[in-house]
Amino acid sequence: xxxxxxxxxxxxxxxxxxxxxxxxxxxxxxxxxxxxxxxxxxxxxxxxxxxxxxxxxxxxxxxxxxxxxxxxxxxxxxxxxxxxxxxxxxxxxxxxxxxxxxxxxxxxxxxxxxxxxxxxxxxxxxxxxxxxxxxxxxxxxxxxxxxxxxxxxxxxxxxxxxxxxxxxxxxxxxxxxxxxxxx
Length: 183
Fold this sequence. Notes:
By secondary structure, the chain is mainly beta. The chain has four helices and eleven strands; from the N terminus they run E-E-E-E-H-E-H-H-E-E-E-H-E-E-E. A seven-stranded antiparallel beta sheet has the order 2-1-5-8-9-4-3. A two-stranded antiparallel ribbon has the order 6-7.
């Protein structure tokens, strides 16, 4: 074994698909790129999301307590990276990056049709926001873009490095304890 920089360990414990987070504040929508999130539980579906005061979307999330998490595919990876490299305080990112939006069914933030999935969320816990910038979100509605079934999501490994989901290994027959969660 050799030492490894602790501040780079997040690149090994990769949190999941890169997400786009849509918010709306005073009727003005914004979108940001997020690489740090996690599933917390299945029922109700809770998601932990790191959004800090350095993010323009932070104020809207604190104020309105809702957002849309969109899972982009590899087909728009360059847009997703570019969205993360500018701020909503000076750019209308939906226009700048030619994103196709549609109204959500429950929350005010828009969904992004260019993405594989859209998950409407409500903030249900903010106890860890001040200390860790961690919002607990409950998924209240979800949408799949059937036109993008063959497009893969991608994962962030830090410093501009991404991986694309690839080969799937199905071991459902071994999941005897968790059969209730299988599709």
